[in-house]
Amino acid sequence: MNYLTSLGALPLLGALLIFTLPKSKSNSAKWLALATSIAVAFLGVLIALRFEIDRPGFQFVENYSWIPSFGINYSLGIDGIALVLILMSVILVPIVIVAGWHESEGGRWGSKTFYILILILETMMIGVFAATDVFLFYVFFEAMLVPVYFLIGGYGVGERAAAAVKFLLYSLFGGLLMLAAIIGIYVISGHQGGHTFDIEKLSQLTIDSTTQNFLFLGFFIAFAIKAPLWPLHTWLPDAAKSATPGTSVLLLGVLDKVGTFGMIRYCIKLFPESSKTFTPIIIVLALISILYGAFLAIGQKDIKGLIAFTSISHFGFITMGIFAMTTQGHSGATLYMVNHGFSTAALFLVAGWISKRRGSSTIADFGGLQRVTPVLAWTFFIAGLSSLALPGLSSFVSEFLVLVGTYTRYPVAAVIGTLGIVLAALYILIPVQKALHGPITPGNENLTDITRRERIAIAPVIAVIIFLGFYPKPLLDVINPASVATLTAAGFSDPAPTVGGK
Amino acid sequence: MNSANYLYLSAMLFTIGAVGVVIRRNAIVVFMCIELMLNAANLAFVTFARINGTLDGQIIAFFTMVVAACEVVVGLAIIVTIFRSRRSTSVDDASLLKR
Amino acid sequence: MSDTPVLQYSFLAPILIVLGGAVIGVLLEAFAAAKRRAVLQLTLTLGTLFIAFLSLLRIRNLTSAKAAMGSVMIDGPTILMQGTILLIAFFAVMIIGDVDNFTAQASAVPGSDEEKSALQAGRQQTEIFPLTLFAVAGMLLFPAANDLVTLFVALEVLSLPLYLMAGLSRHRRLFSQEAALKYFLLGAYASAFFLFGAAFLYGFSYSVTLSGIHAAVIGGTANNIFLLIGLTFISLGLLFKVGAVPFHAWTPDVYQGAPTPITGFMAAATKVAAFGAMLRIYYVTFAEANWNWRPILTVIAIATMLVGSIVAITQRDIKRMLAYSSIAHAGFLFTGVIALNKAGLAATLFYLLAYGFATIGAFGVITLVRDSSGEITDLNRWAGLGRRSPKIAALFSFFLFAFAGIPLTSGFIGKFAIFTAAYESGNIGVVVVGVLSSAIAAFFYIRVIVMMYFADDNGDSLTVVIPSPLTSIAIWVSGGVTLVLGVYPTPVLNAINTLATFIR
Amino acid sequence: MTSNNLVYLIALPLFSSGFLMMLGRRADKWGHIFATLISASAFGIGAFEFLQMLARPSESRAVTQKLFSWISVGTFQVDASLLLDQLSISFVLLITGVGTLIHIYSIAYMSHDLDRRRFFAFLNFFIAAMLLLVLGDSYLNLYVGWEGVGLASYLLIGFWNQKPEYATAAKKAFIANRVGDVGLSLAIMIAFATFGTVSFAGVEEKVSGASTAALTGIGLMLLLAATGKSAQFPLQSWLGDAMAGPTPVSALIHAATMVTAGVYLITRSNFIFDNAPTAQLCVVIIGAITLMFGALIGTAKDDIKKALAASTMSQIGYMILATGLGPVGYAFAIMHLLTHGFFKAGMFLGAGSVMHGMDDEVNMRKYGGLGKLMPITAITFGLGYLAIIGVPPFAGFYSKDKIIETAFNSEGIKGLFIGGAALLGALVTAFYMTRVIILTFTGAKRWDEKAHPHESPFLMWGPMAILAIGSVASGFLLSSGNRFVSWLAPVVNSHEVEHAERFQPVVVTTMALVAVLIGVAIAIAKYRSDVPRVAPTNVNIFTKIARRDLLQDDFNEAVLMRPGQALTNFLVATDERAIDGAVRTVGAVVIGSSKGIRKTQNGFVRSYALLILFGAFALLATIWVVTL
After folding, report:
1. Is C467 inside a domain boundary?
2. Of C407-421, D285-299, D400-414, where does mean pLDDT reach its minimum?
3. In chain A, where are the structural domains located?
4. pTM (two decimals)
5. What's the DSSP call for residue C3?
6. Which of B54, C170, C195, C325 has a CB 3.0–4.6 Å from the CB of B41, allowing a cystine?
7. Which residues of chain B lie closer than 8 angstroms to D603, CB-CB?
8. Which CATH class for the B1-84 domain?
């Protein structure tokens, strides 16, 4: 059975069904979308259960010739890293649908279109993580911009069109640079035993270091825009401020992970030597992202902008973990991707709910919410704690792994990175104080607390956040072999402890 | 007489035509300049044919004349139409489409 | 004396059929009743193109045959390009068939009583159909031409009808006439250069056939300055036709002024023909002299990509914007030409097909967006189109995505193929510029989408007419082709790869 | 030895806390009782384990419980597992014991608060986190508890966060703690990089092979952590503000337990500090500075809780100082920690009782003569007072005296300095504590007519009484026959190192008692007469500085906060203008060139022809040049 294709095709099928619905039935479109996404989530869990932890290499491999004249194959396969990211994506989609049950109603077009776009996006998300053919990856990578573009521009708020355009242009720019690099490596493969896009075969190529550096940059800049890494981040706050909360969740939670995922899967795997060359610069950029994102988050007046900048800080951690080139760093970074997905989801969803109730997303307009809407306030608080990596919540494990993994190779970077811990406390607690604490700001007296639907949406997210904080082992067990494999293939090994090393 | 001189003449005619297109305003004159260029080419063809002693070039000259005649038909049609609309044959007057 | 000339009619059949159809069309103008002329002409034209295509299929397995005493070369690329031209022309004619786009009486002065009465009488300038066929015939011949005379004649045969067709718009006739005038004057100017170049090539090689010139190029004994002048001016003629910088200036004006269906036809089909001829000349004739022309063509390719993309950004008129976009695409195509390898040839052929269909579709959609005074090409007035007719807007967006080279559209595969070929030839700088200008180009395509979907309806009388069946077939088929070529281009690519070898 | 019960110590209160939070208002009626029972049962388990431990020989008293493998990546292996040894059981009993008493006290103290259930949920959460802190068998497990208590502290300080200044105080506490946490996490990183493990046992085993630099690094980072959590210089400023929390919280978290976590951390890491003399010296210095710092601040505060908070700071300074004195000091530090837990908690509860009777008035200048109206409070408070200033035979005497003695006897000139500081601290302590007693319980009444001071109910004074008993007896119980020192010996490796004693114990004790007497005398002399209801403003500069917490807040504001805010504002502007601006500039350049090139498209056919002509020349020229 073609598990991965089925997984990817299912949402597309749902989208098609919704497309055939008459216009008036926007409610059935919702339910259909929800049903589809839940089915996809179940299939995703099934795949996870059938995943064999100890088997090296890609699993659930599918390989069909697609465009033979260019050596392009439709080939899918997942390792542990891809698996957890796919799992996160398919779990987040139904949550986003439930959470934003009415999100589709304020848009330029009807609900139908909204859910079609969401489901198409889900297909693309699965595809981008599952592709093992570089060309196929690129196709998904670029094509997924289109639904997001329309989701932001069509259903967002404020300067949504401008934000959507900015998002698209940034991404296209990066994508096109990557295209040039993909072409480059493809041409080189042609000189060394036949044109191919197969990731494994491409990683065997011998490329001279100058070329490798340029190709690496082509890939890396695209991923750095996506991730986003300072100074290529300015699209993100705008997009996040304009998009609906659900879209933002998918944007920051899943799409941006493609960037960091790509760094592991493509940058390091294909260009180990250049990865080594550029590591110092990238670590510095990551550090700047961590601190810069944190400071900017502190300075934000808009709650969504704040979350966006916290994400920039978090992506700094992820990038740093990846380029620390240690198993702790890599596993930590991968786990961080998942955890960040969930904690940002929680933050964005709750922020979206309270903004909608209040009709404003300016932090100063809130105040005393803990007295008015206690459950919402607590949910936001817990999500915030996860974001500041409180031990016992999921992000802590990953953030600490990243830091430890970085320290063993780049102590100075890790030391500077830990400053992010303090700043994280500031950027979470300042808005918490302004929005949740203090006297009740006029205009907030009559806000309603969380609804049943919202409870259903947020409960699994919070549960995951807490569960993974205490017991990240299931994920780490899956991620570790993949991290080790990536690093071994690229020729890295963990620094041994100075005392009693192996 | 050195046949290269015919080539110089041809080049001169061509240049006159090419420059004439740029400096003259009247559409008809511009068009005639183009015809001059075509004929310069014809002269070159014939000269080369003469130098080489083959007939190809001379035959091409006839083709060119036919084509030029066709061009006149089409060109005059267009110029006359626009003259009727605008009451002017200045090519500078037709400059609505720009930027 | 030599043998009686053998024309080999079967090889020339597609061209001859189209020419024949055109002549019959002219006769129809003379003898058919005015009321039925439009239908008859349309049927005749589509039928002619269809039969021509069938006859082309019959000779599709020829990979090397000369016809008309070696004047016409029937090889793989010829067949591919003729096929592409016929297909594009077929769908373009469907859109042209919606004769509301054309003036009732071309000879009538705009705004005159004569024009009004012609309009009221419902007269139609059905000569547009035979003109189209003549142009198609020229286009079919152009890439197949194997000697200088044929090349020149084909160039003129394809150009002259287009000059006229550009002036036949129903609305904004002053624009249209001006477009015709500009196109004609500049086109003739460029033709003159072309001919002058041809003369010097003849003087250089004492041969009019491409293979003869090629032999002289390899021999290297003949007079080099003649080769230089010949090469330069021949190139100029071709560069003009495809709208390369700095010979591009006519493109935006003509594209904007001409009747939209004609613009679509011109943009799509002329490009195929001109690039076809260019490929043959550079790949076959001057390949060995590439160190002469490749550097400057590289510069031109870069300039064309950049100028097209950059200037398009600030356009307010959608047709004009697409004109600049077509200039940028010419630049992309150039990177395939100067790659000078088989991959480049194949990529260019694929790109031409992909771009041709997207162009037909896009201009087809533009013909549908109107108010009472005709088509609306002012971009600002496209605001809210996405709400009023979502399907048409979606289709147009899809074409724009194809132009921008977003994956899952034909444009992406084309761009990928062509950049790959360029990279393969070692011309990495061109690839980088190509990629950058693609990024710039994306901006103005997206701007149109923003206008259609995200700008607020300004409530003016913009309507989308219900497309006639033919037009809708044409645009939806174009969309379909664009999608299929993007998702599963394998059959087409295979066909191109088998056929794409020039024969000298 | 393993045990299966340890997890319940943590799980019960943790569950209870989550349960009460989830149930919400439904649990309002019985939540406080439920939480108190849970806390009591945790104490029960602790006591049970304690008895079991007593039954075993001293070298095998430690028990462990492995729960599950928590983080396992490459060589980074951390189990969620617990360790109960002589050190941790001392804390467990203190935390659950004092904790339970304070739960009981709070039932009455918080009875009028609508959110009492939530308060108890937080208290239970704190108990769980604090127990995890002392039970974790590795630095990382400790870290979880470490941040957990920080969170609990944050929540409880900000319990009445509808008042903005309370919310700010909570935030300040959390941030200051986080700065310390950076130290802890860095220490863990260095430890992992050095030893390849972060468990206490693993590190201790390999410690001998490590370089001094690494050990010093770990030590200093742990010290940083301790300064954050235990309100030591220079991270002490949050503690005063933390008094915004309800008084039981101040008693439990900010006096008895959480703030002493730093002492626990250093004692737990004795194997590191014993091998890193530089770090140890820093510990001593920080302790000495803080004990003076706190004491000086204490002299100037009119707010009863802030005065007590300053005293806490100072007393923890003593403990930290003791931990820096090497193997001999750990036991005394912990002993002082335990006795301090009793008397300071007792005094805080007493202060709460006073506030309870005085409509939450905290300004001691508006008290006066309360002894007669609140006899039980006055007596329990008084017993705590005697303990803290170190009057024999009260608890504080035993523990503090030992610290001063050890300080004096440490080597070289260092001993004289720190001993002197400790002694001076004792003097100042006696002064400010006497001041508190005088202002609050004796003299003329200075309160408003509206106030009706009254004794607190039994639920409140009961716990106070028990703590008072502790303040009286615990010192003697722990120190007689060196009981506690030998109890802790297996953990801290203090194997009776013989010191050349500079001062005989009798001498030190005498000096200390004299110092206390002087302090008390000065206080009586100064506050015997009438005390103005409003703090006089024409005081000397030192008093002013002391009232402002020795300018620590001003320092932080000037050096950290303002530059930080400026940096933030600068970066926000940079992001918009410079970075996004750069991107926009690229766009503007493209658009500008677009407009520029458009101008060539002027609509005149002749200029197009000229362009072609020009192109022709350029083409010809280039091809010609290339050909040459």
Report:
1. yes
2. D400-414
3. 272-493
4. 0.89
5. P
6. C195
7. 95-99
8. mainly alpha
